[in-house]
Each structure stands twice: as structure tokens, then as C-alpha cells.
Amino acid sequence: MSLYGSFLSDEQFLCSICLDMFTNPSSTPCGHSFCMTCISRYWDGSKVCQCPLCKKTFQKRPDLQINRTLREITDQFRAMKGSGGQVKDKRNGKGVCGGEGVIPENLFNELKKKLPRPSEMQVKVPCEAQASFESGGVPIPTSCSRITAPLASSVPNGSPVLSSNHLSRAPVPLQSYSPPHSGRRRFTVSGAASSRNLPVCEIHQRGILIYCRTDRVCICPECEAEHHQNHDTVTINDEWLENQAQLNRTEQLIQDMIRERIRKMEEIRFSVAELEVAVEQETAGSVCLFSALISAIERSQVELMEVMEMTHKAAEHQADAMIRQLELEVKELRRRESALKELAKSDDHIHCVKTFPSLCSPPPIKDWTGVLVNSDLGTGTIYMSLAAQVERFQDELKNIAETGFCASTLELTPVRTQPRMKSVKEYAVDVTLDSNTAHPRLIMSEDMKSVWCGDRHQLLPDNMERFDRVVCVLGRQMISSGRHYWEVEVGGKTDWDLGVAKQSINRKGKIDVNPSKGYWFLSLRDKNKYAFRSEPSTDVHLNLKPNKIGIFVDFENGQVSFYNVDAKLHIYTFNDTFGECIYPFFSPCTNKSGKNDAPLIITSVNMTE
Fold first, then answer.
1. What's the rounded Cα separation, in Å, for the pair 433 and 476?
2. Whether the predicted model's global pTM rises above the 0.85 cut
3. What span, in angstroms and rounded, lies between the C-alpha atoms of 571 and 561?
């Protein structure tokens, strides 16, 4: 095999543009070589200069120079090809590396000077070649696969061969070899001959195969020798193998971080959902809390207005009564004064003597020295109730500020001196009428729940329990302890009396109905005149006319309270000490020729209202 047949081929000296052997070859900055004329024409008229092989783009058109070394090698190769390609050794007549041709000594020495001489170079040779080099043989078969092996510097019998020192100064390193028709990847002096583009060092035009761990850069072998001596360097492949292990760990770490952040996102979403529930709960609780306070204030305001109006009316009524009585006394005194003046002018001494004793005696008048109109407005109880409500509201606010709202709906129950309508219904009792105490004109239903006044007396036994002058009747149920509540329908009537009475009350003849006599009443007269049977009797003005009256008794606390059931309003409360057992009291009053013949009806208590 000839020298150029063993190491060089025609394709390695062909321009990839004109497909002919190099003429005045010139190398681009990317390391590829072309004919000077071909590459100049290729770039003429182009706005961007680009390598025809690797397509690398240059911002500025390179200033190309002829590669004189490559040109000399091309010329030598052309000359050898012209002589038949026989390169023989003059000493033994055998071709170098086993070729059949010979090469003159001076030509061989000249070729050795022109070939590149890298400090360390590897070529691809058949696998049998390594054994041949190691055993001293020089034939290089072409049928085996390629391996990487250093070129031997000498062969047996003193035959000169190409060594690594003979291949050191080419513009592009001679990196690999493969047979012309093997179809495998190879590198030529003009650049990569395969589809893979190996990065090339811009300074030395060598392949970048080494990684410097000290400076963390990728370099070529000559960069290592010049600038990275005593640095920690490895091949790029070895570095990548270590990086792959680190890559797996990094990938696992990133996956863990992703999962952690996904969990945090779910936690945040759950916190937002909990916050929404807390907002709804807080909103509902605050609305309930403040609504209860506002409602309590409004109720207290209504009661305050009613009580003041009632007190005002009662004071006016009391004042009117006292003024009428004083006017009568003044009238009587003026009558006596006139009589005395006439008596003084009279000449009838006998008449004067007879009349004077009756005129000089004190008239039946009242001592008004300590009598005053009641100035108590009766609002103290309401203010105390509202103060207790506000105090409880403040306690609720402090509790909420510390613990927040509970899940259940908050209901702020007002604190009142008088029991509320809803609470008193819990003490409802079944009340019936006692016929043994009924006035003879009273007529009762069979269930003893209704009573009204008839036109005439009935023939009934006159026992000790029966009222004989006042048209009234007691309930059968005795109250001696605890709390009791019942309701009476009064709609359609013009007059009635409702309340409680002691067991020891006087039931015969004319009766004074007031607390000191054992009666605690609320009365209606002439359709719209309401009054409490106190001393003196207190008139009251109700904005809403009640159709049903509720009576509540707290025996231990000495309270008798009256309610407008339909309006759910408290009307009035007697505070007293009973001292003995009491009974429900009912008086439908006289029928007034049919105008007041509607009955009083004891109704069942509706607990759902």
C-alpha cells in the first residue's frame, strides 16, 4: 500500500466548493479550508459571510490568507499522485508502512518537514494495526473496525515511518482516519467530514475536548498546555458523566421542592377557605350581636316613651282630680263666706243666732298641706334595664375579642326587671273559673273558660265565697308560690277588670279595689280609658289597643305584670308583697244594655310565637 493510500486520500485535498484539489488553499476562522478563489466568489455579493460547511456566521468578512503549509502539502500530494503513488524506501526497496511503491530519500525527508507535528495525536486505525505496531509488524489491514492508538515512532529493520512528531503543524489537526469506503465518520484537514460539528478553539483551531474544573471552562489540549498547567482537568465526557449523577440528585431535589410548593399552595387555599368560613361566621355573629343591642335600645326607647306618657297622663289625672276637689272646697268656702256676710247684715237676730253655729263650724275639707302631684316619671326601671343590657353587651364584646364568635348563632338576651314576653310564656298554667265565687249575674261556659254578664240575677246560694255586689269571679287555681302565666281575650268589650286578688278579700257589699285591700288590677272603661287600680288610680294611655291581655305572677318576688300579647309589649308591673295566697281575678263588668256583653275568654298560650 502506498503512503498516500495508507494515510491520505484524494478527498482530503478536495475543495468542497469546486470539488477539485486545493488551489491556493485558505482557511476560515472556523477551521475549514477552501480554494482562495472559490471562497472569495462564494462570499461576493453576500451581506453575511457564512462558512459553507459548518454554517458559522461572521459579523465581518474575514481577511483570508493563503495557507502556505497546506498548499505545499497539496502540491507534494499532487506530485506523488503524478508519479503513480509509489513511495519506496531506498534502503530496502519496500514501501513505507508496507506499501509497494518507494519514495526518494530527499522527497521523504522534505515531506516529513511539511507534515503537522502535534505534541500528542491519535488516529483511527484498524484493530489489527495495534497488534502489528506492538509486535513490530508494519502491515495495516483495512477490514477491522477502527480504534484509537498512538502512531509508532519506528518499526523493525530500521524502516522510517511517520511518527506523531511528524504531524504537528497543520492548520486543522489530523484527528481520525477511516477507510475511504467505510461510510464512517472521519475528520480531514479541511474540517469535519460528518454531520457532527465538534466545537473548535478559536485560538488554536483545535477541538475542544477538555474541561478545566479550576477555571470552569472547556478548552483544547493546547490551551491546557499553555494556560491551565497544574489545574484540575478532565475530559468533557468524564465531566459530563459526573454531572449526570449530580443531575439526577438535582432533579430529585427540584421534584421535592415542587411537591413542597404544591403542598404549600394547597395549604394556602385551605387557609383562604377557612378564612371565608370565619368571615361568614364573624359577619353573622356581629350582625346578630349589634341587631340585638339595637333592638333592645329601640324597645327601651318605646317603653320609655310609653312610661313617660303614662306617667304624664297619670299626673294630669291626679292633678285634675285634686283641682276638682279643691274647686269644690273653694266653692263651699265661698258659699259660707257669702252666708256670713249676709248674716252680718241681717237684722233678724233670731235667724242669726240659729244660723251662725252651723256657719262657724269647720267645713268638711281635706288638709292639703302635704299633698303634691307625683313627679316621679317612672323611667328609672327602664334605664336600669338598658344599663344592664349595655353592660352585658360590653361583656359579650370582651368575650368575643378574646375567643371570637362561636359557630352557633349568638343571641343577646336583654336583662330586664320585667320578664320578657317570650320567657313568661314558659310558666303558662291552665286557669279555669270558680263558679262558687261568681256574682249571680255572671254566666260562664261549660268549660269554665268564658264569662259574661247577664241581664238579671240568677238564683244561686249566697255562700261566703261569692261576690254579691261587684260582678266578678275568681279563678279556681290558688297561687302560693312560683311563677304563673295566663292569657285572657278582651276584644269587643268596652269595660273589664283583670288581675289577681288575695284569698282574704272582702266579697260582700261595696269593695275598694286597690293593692292595700288585696287587689292588683288593670281596668278598661268606656272603650279606651285604661287605668291601674293603685292609690290613687293611675290612668294609662296605650298606643296599641290590646285584644288579648297576658298576666304574669312571680309570687316570691311580689310581681304582677301585664302584657299586650299581640304586640308583645310589657304594659305595667305591680311590685308588692302578697303575704298570703292569691287567685286570678276576672270582671267582665256590667253589659251596659248589650254594649258590653262580649265575654272574657281564657285562651291557651301559644308557645311558638
1. 5
2. no
3. 7
Give per-residue pLDDT as tens, 40-63: 888 887 778 889 888 888 888 888
| CB-CB contact of 490 with 549 (8 Å) | yes
The string of pLDDT tens digits covering residues 498-522 is 999 999 898 888 888 888 888 998 9
> Do the beta carbons of residue 95 and residue 87 sit within 8 Å?
yes
Count the alpha carbons within 13 Å of 22 in the hemisphere toward its beta carbon: 27
Dihedral pair phi/psi, residue 480, rounded to 5°: -125, -5
Query: Using CA atoms, how far apart are residues 158 and 45, in angstroms rounded to an integer?
Result: 56
Closest CA to 544 of 368, 303, 236: 303
Looking up cell 289625672, which residue turns up? 317
Cell of 545: 289597643
- Note if the bond before 536 is cis, omega within 30 degrees: yes
- What's the CA angle centered on 486, arms 484 and 490, to 5 degrees? 150
Query: Residue 63 to residues 16, 423, 590: CA-CA distances in angstroms?
Result: 20, 109, 137
What's the rounded Cα separation, in Å, for the pair 522 and 510? 19
Tally of residues, the chain: 609
Q: Which three cell numbers stand for residue 185?
A: 465518520
CA-CA distance, 41 to 53, in Å (whole number)? 15
CA 388, 394, 395, 397 torsion: positive or negative?
positive
DSSP 573: E
CA distance 603 to 61: 115
Alpha helix stretches (DSSP H) within 346-440: 349-360, 380-403, 421-424
Burial of 490 (0-12, 13-18, 19+ CB in 10 A): buried
**pLDDT band, very low/low/confident/very high, at 83 (cuts 50, 70, 90):** low
Lookup: cell for 583: 287567685
Task: Provide the grid cell at 464.
Answer: 261566703
Cα separation, 166 vs 182, whole angstroms: 26
Angle at 453 between CA 449 and CA 458, to 5 degrees: 100
| Residue 419, C-alpha cell as written in the block | 320578664
DSSP secondary structure string for all residues of 416-442: -SSPPHHHHGGGB----B-GGGS-TTE
What angle (nearest 5°) sits at the alpha carbon of residue 542, between those of residues 443 and 605? 50
Q: What is the DSSP letter of 472?
A: -
